[in-house]
Structure formats: C-alpha cells, structure tokens
Amino acid sequence: MSTETKTAAENAVDQTAAKITTGPLPASYKIYVHGQTHQSLRVPMRQIHVGGDEAPVTVYDSSGPYTDPAAEINIREGLADNRGTWLQERGDVETYEGRAVTDADNGFAKGDKLVPAFPQQRAPLRAVGDKAVTQLAYARAGIVTPEMEFVAIRENNGRIKAWEKERDGHDFGASIPDLVTPEFVRQEIAQGRAVIPANINHRELEPMIIGRNFLVKINANIGNSAVTSSMEEEVDKMVWATRWGADTVMDLSTGRNIHNIRDWIIRNSPVPIGTVPLYQALEKVNGIAEDLTWEVFRDTLIEQAEQGVDYFTIHAGVRLHMVPMTAKRVTGIVSRGGSIMAKWCLHHHRESFLYEHFEEICEICRRYDVSFSLGDGLRPGSIADANDEAQFAELETLGELTKIAWARDCQVFIEGPGHVAMHKIKANMDKQLEHCHEAPFYTLGPLTTDIAPGYDHITSAIGAAMIGWYGCAMLCYVTPKEHLGLPDRDDVKTGVITYKLAAHAADLAKGHPGAQDRDDAISRARFEFRWEDQFNLSLDPETARDFHDETMPKEAHKVAHFCSMCGPKFCSMRISHDIRAEAEKAEGFAKMAAKFQEGGELYIPADQVEPAE
Amino acid sequence: MSTETKTAAENAVDQTAAKITTGPLPASYKIYVHGQTHQSLRVPMRQIHVGGDEAPVTVYDSSGPYTDPAAEINIREGLADNRGTWLQERGDVETYEGRAVTDADNGFAKGDKLVPAFPQQRAPLRAVGDKAVTQLAYARAGIVTPEMEFVAIRENNGRIKAWEKERDGHDFGASIPDLVTPEFVRQEIAQGRAVIPANINHRELEPMIIGRNFLVKINANIGNSAVTSSMEEEVDKMVWATRWGADTVMDLSTGRNIHNIRDWIIRNSPVPIGTVPLYQALEKVNGIAEDLTWEVFRDTLIEQAEQGVDYFTIHAGVRLHMVPMTAKRVTGIVSRGGSIMAKWCLHHHRESFLYEHFEEICEICRRYDVSFSLGDGLRPGSIADANDEAQFAELETLGELTKIAWARDCQVFIEGPGHVAMHKIKANMDKQLEHCHEAPFYTLGPLTTDIAPGYDHITSAIGAAMIGWYGCAMLCYVTPKEHLGLPDRDDVKTGVITYKLAAHAADLAKGHPGAQDRDDAISRARFEFRWEDQFNLSLDPETARDFHDETMPKEAHKVAHFCSMCGPKFCSMRISHDIRAEAEKAEGFAKMAAKFQEGGELYIPADQVEPAE
User: Fold this and answer.
1) Which residues of chain A form CATH 3.20.20.540?
2) Interface touch A572/B332, C-beta < 8 Å
3) Which CATH architecture has domain A125-516?
C-alpha cells in the first residue's frame, strides 16, 4: 500500500482527509503546559480569549492536534508518537512481530469492499516476560509515570495553586483535592479508584483519567454497522466527537472491515479508544452466537491489544444462572454483548467462557495495559426493569471480577445502566461503590423515562447529570437517534454537547475547584452585553451564534445592549445597569462588585506555557 | 368590526385560521369522561390505540378541541363556552358593562397596525357584592365545584379505582392519593396546597390543577415583543404549545396590540392563560419604569381580569431594602418585572406600590378568581447568584403575601428560579415549602449550568426534572433560544416536549399511580418490534418516525425485527426473544411473563366514555 501509484481506495482516503474538521474553535488558542518532573510533557489546553479586561478562560481540551493550527494533519500518517520515549524509558516493553491480519479480521471483505490497511504499520509492543506494564502496576510500585503527571496537569485546567476559596458543592463522600498533583493521581490509581486507559500500543494518546475524584468525563460511541455507514465517516466522527468534547470514543463497529477501520481510528485518535471485542469475535463466527469459542475470543483480544485499543468492554458478569432472572423483564436483555453471552450460556448449558477464562483475559490485558470496562450485560432497557435482581446480581459479579483483575495489576472500571427513574439512580451509585470497591463507574445515561424517543439525549442527560453528581466517573452519551436509527454527524455533536453540559453540571454540583469559572465568565459576558464572548465561551459557539442571528442578524446587534427576547425597554439586564448607576450616586448602597482579579495568580502565567504557533 | 365587509386585518385573520394545526395525533382518539356529581362535565382524554392485544393507553390531554375531529374550529368565534352554566348555577356572579378599551391598551396602535378586536365580545362577569368567587372560597365552604370534579377525573387519566399495586417512588413527603377524588381536590385547594387557575371570564377553559400532590404541569411562554412577532403567530403558538402538552400558557407580550392579541388568545384557549400585568402597564407609560403608578397598574389588572386572564404574575416581593442585596451579583436582576420594580423603588426611594397595595390587588383577584403567581423578581440569573440573600429574602416576603392573599380567599402559587446548580436545588424546594406554607411552587427550569446557550432547554430540563421530583408543581419551559433570541414554532415544540419529559420523569420518581403505564406500553412495543406503536406512544410521534425513517425508510423496516442501530445479528432484543424461545423448551426456566391484563378492570370501561365522533 505504500507504492507511489495510488489505488482507488487510497484516493478515497485522500478525499476523506479533506472532510476532517480542523482548526481552532472561535477565539480559542491552543496552549501546551510542560511537566515539572517530566519536562517533555506537552499538556494541551484551550484558552478562550475574552473581551474587556478579563483574563482568558482555560478549558479542558480533548480535541487533540486537530484544533492546533500549527499541527499538520494527515490521516494517512496518523498523529505523532507522543508516548514512545516514555515507554522506552520504562524499559519493560519489547517490540515483536505481531499477529498476522487474517481475512476474518475484516469480515472477509475483498477487493473494492476492503478498506485499505493503515499505511504506516508499526511493530506492536508488549511487556517483557510476565511484567505488568499497567498504570496500576506502576502506581502500586510508587512510580509516577508521565501519563500520571500529564493527567494531573490536565485536570487542573491551568490552575497551579490549591483552591483556597470556599468549596461550593456536595460531593457525596468523594475526595476531590484542592489541586490535583501527580502523587494524588498515583494514589488514586493505586487504590483502583481511577483509571488511565492507555494501551502501550496507542502511542498517539493524550492521556486522560477516569475517576470519581476527577472531572466527570464523557464517551461518544461511533462505529459502522452491517446495515450502513463507512470507515471514512467513522474517522471523521471520532475527530468530530473529540472536537466537541468527547473524552473517550468507543468504536462499536460490526460487519466488515472492523480491523482496518479500527486501525485508522486509533492511529488518528488523541483520546482512548474502547471496543467490545465480542462484536468482532461474533463476526468471525458469522454471527452465530453459539459458535463463539474462547479461542476465537482470545485471538481477537490479542489482535485488538496489538492495535492499541485502550479499553475492552468484557461482559464476563453475565453468568448462566442469571439468565432466568431476566425472564419476566419487560425488555429482556438489551445489551448486545449481554444477549450474545446469555444465548451462548443457555445454548451450551455452560458457564460463560468470559467468566471462566477471566484470569487469562487479565494476562493479556496486563501485557498491553488494556483497561477493563466490565460490561453491564444485564442492564435494564426500560423503566420497568431498573434495579432488578438480574441487574444487581451481575453488579456483584463485576465486583468479584474487579478483585481478580486488580490482583493481576489490571485497571478496571464498571459499566452501568441504562433506563432508571430518578428515584432509583442513587442506589445504582451506592451499590456500585460498595460491590465494586470504588472502581470507577461508567454509565449509559441513565434514561429517566421511556416515553420520549427522539429526545433520549435529554431523558438520559437528566439521569447522567444526577449520577455524575453522585459519583459516576464517566457518562456514555446518548444521541437523539437512540432506539430509532444510526446517529449522523449532527446527532454525534448534539449528543456530545448534551453530555458535556451534563458532566459540567455534575462537576459544579460536586464542587470541583474552578469548575464554576467558565459559568461566571459567560454570565459576566451576558450581563455586560458582550455577545461575542457569550458565544465564544459556550460549549457550542456555532449554535449559540446561529440562534442569536436568526432573530438579530445585523452586526450592530452583536454590540446591542438588549436582546430580541425583551426589546430595549424590557431588558432586565439593561435596567440592572441603570439601577447600579443610580445606586452608585445614592448613598447607603454597596460599592459595585470588584472585577474578578484572581486569574493572574491562581492560574498558570502566560509565559510558562508554550503557545501553538 | 362585525360588519359583513371584511377589513384587510380581518382577512389576515381568516388566513391565520388555516395555519392553526388541528386534528388528532397519530393513532389517537379523543374521549370525554362524564362527571358523577356534575353529569354534564366532559373531561377530555386522549386514547392511543396500540397493536397486538394491548389495551389502548389513555394519556392526559391539554390540547382542547383542536385535536377533536368532531369540533368545528373557527378562531373568529373562539372556543365553546364550557363554564357558563357552572358559573350561573353558583348564583354569585353578575354581568356588567366592562371597562372601555383605550388606545393605550393596544399601545396606541392605529390603522393597519392595529390588530382587530376579537369579534364576539361578551359582557364580563364579576362577583356580586363583596363575594369571593374563587375556588379557594368554595373549597373552604365545603363546596365541590364542577371545576374540582373536572380536574379530579382528569388527574386519574381514566383510572376509576384506587391504585392497589405497590407504589414505586420517593415523594419527599408529598401526599399523593391512590385515586384523586373531587373531595381530595377540594381539601387540597382549601389548604392552599393546590390551585385551579380559572378566571370566571375564561369560560372556554378546560380546568386543570397545580399542586404538589397532582401530576407535574408545564407552562409555555408565548408573546410578541417590541422587536418582532405578531398576533397571528401567538394564537398559533398557543394552540401549537397545548397540542404538544403545555398545561398553561403565559402571554408575555410587550409592545403594541397587547390587549387585542390577548383577547384572541384567551377566547381560543382551552388552558389557563397567565400574564405579567406589569408589562402592559409599562407600555401604558411609554416604557418609563419611574412613571408607573398604582392607578395605571390597577386599571390594567381590571382590564385583564375582565378579559379572563387566569393568573397574574405579581412581583410584589421585590422590596426597596432588597435592591442593595443584588449589588454584588454577577448578573444583577434578571427578572423583567423584578428589575422594573427595583428601578421604580430606587428612583422614588419608596416601597413598591405592588407591596403597599397588595390587599387591593387581592380585592380585584377575588372578584374574578384570578390566581396569584407571586413573581420571583430577584431570582438568580447565573450559577454564581443562586440561593443568595436577595433571592431568599424575597421568598420570605412571598410567604407573607401568600397569607394575605389566602385571607382574602385568593388562590396563590409561587414562582421560583432560574439558574441553580444541582446541589442547591433541593434547598429551594425546602425553603419554598417552609416559607410559603405549602403553596404550590412554579419554577423556571432551573438551569444547572450557564455554559450551554443554545441547549438551555436541556440544562434546565435537568433542574426541572429534579425540582419536580422534589415537589415543584409546575415547570415553566425554556426553549433552545433562551438567552439568544425569540423562539419560533419549532423551538416552542422542542421546549414543550422537553418539559413534558422532565415533568413525566418527575411523576415517575414521585410514584404517581399509573404514571409508568405509558413507559411500560412503549417498552413492550419496543421489545416486540411494534415500531408503529413505539412512534404513536411517544411524546413526539412525528420526530420519532422521522428519525427512524432517516435510516430505514422502507415500510418493510416498520415491521422489521431488528433496527439499523445493530443490524439483525446484533439485535439484543431479537436475541432475547431467541433466548426466551429456547428457554421455554428447556426446563427450570420461569414461564414467560403474563401479558399486562389489568387495563379493563382498573381503567374506565370503553362504554362509559363518550368518544369523539
């Protein structure tokens, strides 16, 4: 594939490159913060520049080099190797000749139907001998890795001092520090309370952390399916999802070309990539669940670990004796992986091979540092089925598996529901913390009612914000198309923005230090009629601007001291300014509040960061 | 305006009539349930017919005659007089020659700019002598009015027996009955815990109830403004909003033609109409807040009471001494009414005329049964300002005013915020219950973060669902255009559906008997691949169907036993069916769950209702 004469498929890829959305968001500048211990670290952040005499607002940036005007993007080459030297310096990995790609890996796609392999194939890395090369193993050994320092800097969003103001929030027993230090990260990982999904073969990664004492993260699902979608769209969707804030991306592809599409995604992804290996294994046995074997599954794990998949959803908690517990459910088993394994167990009248071989799965994961996302195969698919016997039986098993994985130094987080009415959400969080020994929780929503298909990003954002507040570490997005069809590009964006706002609402409610800074900045902009700042500071500047311009398209309206909602006479904010002006003259009225002046001290000085050129 | 020769403006109205969306929702049939005590009552409900052997699902119906194919709709004539005989039978009202409409009432609009008066003008009703004609007065006197029986039947959604199954919910101390009886309604109103907004001059009304022990309601705001919008759009928006589920509508018009537009809205509205009379009063003094007087305001109250406005937002809680409390706020005063009154107080260095004349306001309201929506003029407009001194000082004053209004037999509910992070929402509900003596709470959202303009229907739906769960009786919708511009028709629909799902999520969490029926029906449809039923049972069947058809447009896909999200091999629900089939053959597996069979007994038999022809 590296000859000068391009194939038709390669030309198609070239065209695809043009589709990828690059460039900064409005008024935004990429900065990179260097590490203290590991000087070479370049931790990306986004600074939103604001008018008036306000300091720029620094926000978490999951978008990778795509929003850096100085970065050259070529998806045929993939992103730069961030982590190669870190891995070499640890001295516990070796390259080797990886497993050969088979026709089955790509669903026997041939000719024009075969998506081309990613051009730059690197030999895979694995641990030397029986060494565990996981962040958990290093943390337990007292080692602060570059990955740990990277996420520590990242979590502080440019803040360099401990938060000294009163903390405003209710954290339900979480232990959120005033400043995230690399040592704090190490401790949290060592205790299993946080995970850095970072396969040693995903060297393009910008590490991030998932844990209750860190910022709430969100995941976006992408993936082709047997019915529709293509590889090109999927790479674009990954970039698109991270542009708007997805912290991890799950590739849930089924059908043909799974292997090659995944390669393209990982090589171009700055965020951790998760998969459900069972999907590909099922394709290898032509979609017949009963024909699945441990051998096929094991082979698939190695295949994906070599490619650099950062976390595996493994439905090892679905056990034979639990299947009858779902008999009276309104919606049965709604997890794809869960239903496949239930079918397998029942057909063979045997315990699940995932459960029986779980220790062997750990052996694979520890060699590459693939994190476990222990799948909730029996999650409820309707309000009626929430918090039932089947769901909690599985959760207890996931707790057992967590201990087994931890014993082998593997990183673990736990998947959760699903469909749950509001009054039953807290019990999910409480039981998860108890049964799974504080391993991070990662939920899908939950949806708080079943009656609004077409709006399930909203029914689920309600549950997601709440469980995020209660302690859930990562929220898997739901798009407006949930239950109805495949999400397109707009749906992906809507889902990501909706989940970013839910995660942020949770951060505010938990009292994360500094989380409210962005809210305050946008509120000041609103009060001072700085329309451009209001757009630029919002999660989706494009939509905010478009909505404004629908009613008030003229440029003059962007500096107007009123808005079309009320008109000039009824503008409460304009009147508030009049009141303050009047009050300033009058006696007995408090001085106008001092401008927010702490930015310079509390946050990283501009000269200590490396701006994107 | 009643001559045979039509003016240009009248012709314009005729064209408008065609714009009104009428006709039933998909697979839906209007039924009317008769009263027991008041036999002539026709309480509307919507039955959604479902495939298979399932009973139809009866849902609350706020849409009025517009969705009844048997009803003749002519917006020039308005809706039928539902309540005239009820009012006459009480024998405590009289017609009189109402206040003459002035040019000021319509903002001095003239000629082609003047929206024509509603053609069929009825002489207004008022109480005889000093009689209070409020539902509260009747309730205290032990009288169960037709309005009370109407809402009792309506709240049960066709259920005729007390709920006998275990109640699934957490109600935070509410007292939700197993069956809503007219006597229960009377008691709740007598205690001030519920309100039926029902001006005696709004005879077209289909009564509804607002209270913590009833279904959570939603309000939609409409209204023209000085900058844009027209009367025609507003009538259409009212019908449109109620079609999708708005339980009340607030007409927040400013600018010209306020009087005439409001007449058109009320005469055509099946739901209670609320206003902020201060807006019109301000127009009458040319938008100069300082020029407002009690006389102008009082005149406006009478004008609107005669037209049939069902509830007034009165910002009487904003007092002079509270204004300095807002000095250090990030966003000052964001309520239009609040800021106008604050400006007036400060300018005149006087206590608010609304506060000083509150008893006189009560005298007016009791003669027409206009309910109070005591305005939260100092609600927070940003996360930073939530739950501050100003906000809670006003809330305490609203509690005082509640007692004054109750002493004059006036119905009262209380407005609430606004912008509040999740961890501060419950305190709002708790303090409101305490300070306002359990008068119903009515909140705007609250928005749980400030950073997502363009998505504030979602940031606020999170807070709305939560506070609805905690006990808030009515949720004022927020559209995607909040903070950015004026909502159009699509925005109104999005806002209403979003708030319907939030209110329903709250009903589920509170454990309202039967609330889960619709969820269960849609979930069974989903599990059984009854796509049409899934669309028809959803809050927005059109969007659900459109989203499905984007991926799977063919009719065959509507009967497909899989969906495009997963494809046939990966369909968990299909596999679940396989599992059940396999298990049925095998031993030791529970029998498949019996179909839901209680509909016939628990709900009103089909022969006891009057179907729409």
Assistant:
1) 125-516
2) yes
3) Alpha-Beta Barrel (3.20)
